[in-house]
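Do me a favour: review this protein, sequence plus structure tokens, and tell me how the chain folds. Record follows.
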Amino acid sequence: MRLKAGVKQYWRRMGLRVRLLLPIALILVSAGSVRSYYLVAEEREAAISNYQDELSELHLYLTPLLVEQSIIGDYAAIKQTLSLQTKARVNLDSIRWHYLNNTLILNDPTPTPLEAPAWFVRFVGIAPVTSASPITYGSENYGELQLDTTPVPAINKIWTRFTSQVKTIFVVIICIFILISLVLHGNLATLRQLSSAADRFKRGDRKVRVQVRGAAEINAAVTAFNDMAEEVEQLLQSKQESHHALQEQLHFMQQLLAVLPIPIFVKDVDERYLSFNAAWEKLFGISGKSLLNKRLVDLYPDSPDIAKAHREKDLALMEQPGKQIYEISIPVSGGEWRDTIYYKATFTNIDGSLAGIIGAIVDITERKQAESLLFAEKERAEITFSSIGDAVISTDTKGRVEAINPAAEKLTGWKAAEAKGQLLEAVFPIVNETTKTPVASLMQQIIVEGKAVSARNIMLQARNGEEIAIENSAAPIRDRKGNILGCVLVFHDVSEKRQLLEQITWQAGHDTLTSLPNRVLLADRLIRALSNAHRQNRLLAVCLLDLDEFKPVNDRHGHEQGDRLLIEVAERLEKAVRGGDTVARLGGDEFVLLISDLNDMDAMEAALERVLTAVSEPYLINEEPVKISASIGVAVYPLDDADSDTLLRHADQAMYQAKQAGRNRFQLFDADQDMQQQTRNQELDKIRQALHRNELRLFYQPKVNMRTGRVVGMEALLRWHHPDRGLIGPMAFLPLAEQSDMIVQIGEWVLHEAMRQMQEWLRQGEVWPVSVNIAARHFQRPDFVSLIEKALSLYPEVPPQYLELEILESAALGDIQHVHSVITECQKMGVNFALDDFGTGYSSLTYLKRLPANIIKIDQSFVRDMLDDQEDLALVEAVISLSKVFNRGVIAEGVETVEHGVLLLRLGCDEAQGYGIARPMPPAEVLNWVEQYKPDPSWAQWADISWELSDFPLIVAQYEHIKWIDQVVMSVEDLPLLLMEGEIADQHVCRFGQWYDRQGKERYGHLTEFSELEALHTRVHAIGAEIVRLNHESESEKPRDLAKELLLLKDQMVKKLETIQLAVTRTL
């Protein structure tokens, strides 16, 4: 019973929509459930039946196939057939065929996955079916075939039908719900509006109405509500209208008094306060309620006089009703006194009887203060106007003078009283400074444009006729609204300023010593001269003049006399040129001449000759005649079509060429030479960048003692590791660097790098003296000794005696005394010196004696050619002899062959360097080379044997023989043959044959070994001629075989020659 009562109560609380939709939903769900159950039952029966039919059909299909293929023994075909069936039939899970003790089992390779949930599988209840039957044909048995089915495809199919059915039922329910909701929506909405309207009407919303729509029954209820609401609203409206009118009038008055910024008060006829507004309360700082029905004495308890004055005014007004206005100072909030104006008036009752006084208070304290300030400001303005330093004139809009200050009186000559009312043009007449024409008044421009204007370069014509240079400005005078009331003119005397400006302008463009144009003015005149020359098609000579030997004169006679000399030179130059030409001074003893309007070069040369003559005339200094000259560089426009700066630079370059050519002359600018100079500058810049980028490298060439076979030193040789061109030798860039101070920077780098490398070798346990080449420009620097001292101090581990400085013989011949001093100072520190390329200069024995160099280096050009040139051989012998006479060490450079070394040893030179010993190498390879180095055995063989000069041709002959054979052998490799035809065919024509037939027979003909040479020499030429012939016939293999034989003959001849040499030494 309780459940039934609860359901009824819940049913009553339900809305109409729920009451309709809930039963419909239950009915549809029940019907759908029954339909789904029967659907699943039908599908299950159909699936089971289908299994039976498919198994029967498959047995019938497979039996003949299995029999046929079993008979022929094609089991592969059987397996393929069964496999195809497991793949083709989705319900078939596996096939098992047992035959002759063999079982073939084939399962579905891709079983169908189960899609239905487990509860549904249990609900459907389809089990797998297995069918087994024998395979017979006639009386023969061919095994047993077992077929197993899977229920998964059938269950998946039933599940799909089931879910589709459920979805359909769900969609039907949704559609029915939507249709019913749409039908109920309109009627229920009207009922909700009616309920809401009733609630709003109860809360006071009398104008609320409900729109009539929906079913007829609902519309009737809505109409009844609307009629009732209309009647109630009309009854209430008529009652409220009369009350509202009174309230509006009272409210308006209260608001009006409250927002007025003026304090307002009301009194009755008994002088008692009835009301006040907010502004009154703020002014006095008192709440109006505290003074209701009170009198003046209560408002001003501390100021009875103020209360009495007000009361007298009130009584007077009530005796004569109307209006009353008066000023009075009263105390207000905070005890402050304010200046005020009281506005009072009487008011009456409806019957016309006097009711009281209404009053308003206006605070005029700020206005009073402003009036005081304005008066004081006016007084200050008048004082300022009178005392201001600039002249000031004010006018009205018609241009008549209203005021003029004392400064303006002084400049114009007009008194203030006389000027007032006069037109501005009469009091302030102005003219143009240059043209002296009258300048229009600025007044009209100010009136039209309404902005300040100014004017310069004008003259004021004073009343006494005097003209005064002035600067003036004028501006409109405006009122608060921006209307122009007149103008004010301010001006002042700029005469002194104008004169000072002119003087400064002149000084900015002129040289203070000579009064000639300076660089600034010269630049302007040069641009104009170039323009005129271009327009008139004339020549313009831009000449840069530098005085020769001016510095010695200036140093000898003093700067004051030097300045006088420069002034006289300037005067002579101005007289030597024409009036239209320009003479300018750049500074020091440099001048520039602009010789314009030239017809041809002859006219220019004549002008320059006049200048040179004028400058070279004697000057009188301290009663002593002094002669100087000038060197002039000339750039001619438009032959040298360049801008002004370039022309001056070209003239400067030509001037230096004139000095180098002998001075006291002029030199035209050479564009080709300038291009070469620019190229040199660019190359120098590349070298400078290489130095900064650490692209320079030091290679080291060993020096050896050929007699002992010991390494005695290294020479540091510079290389440039170019990023694009690879390794560059010194001759590609050092000659150019030696022409500038760049060689000093490079020299210092080389010196420090060599010292650093020696220090590194020391730390590795090896060290040799390292020679560093020093350029002449570097060596001749005044601070050279200090640079060496600094370098030694930076590398204290390196003994100074291991540093060897090589200087060219030509560098040592410049200033022999200075060179001697530098070498001596450096030797005191332990540094050694070598005189490089000795014999290439023109030094005498006296110079050699005065140069304390430790070592003399024989130039490689003599060493390299001494085997070919008797003069070079004699020179090498002479240098070696000189070194012994002066007790100097000697070393030969350029040793390229063993024969060079043998000859040097026999001449008495033990130390050498060259490609025949080792090429320059990076520092990383030096130690390895030293470890592996072995001197040529020939040097050790002849180390202790002395020779006479008459035996040296034997070594030369041996060298020539070896060269001859090498030439022939190299021709086999298609290299050019550098021998004459006669030198090949005839053994008496070659150089060795000539020696053999003449000097050899004379000196060594008595030796048996010498006579044996002839047969060998004849055989050598025969084989050599055959090799040359075969080469001409383009043979390839046979010449190579003959070349091997020729090399063997060479060795035999060399041994014979060595035997002759030993025989000679035994006779000495």
About this structure: The radius of gyration is 66 Å.
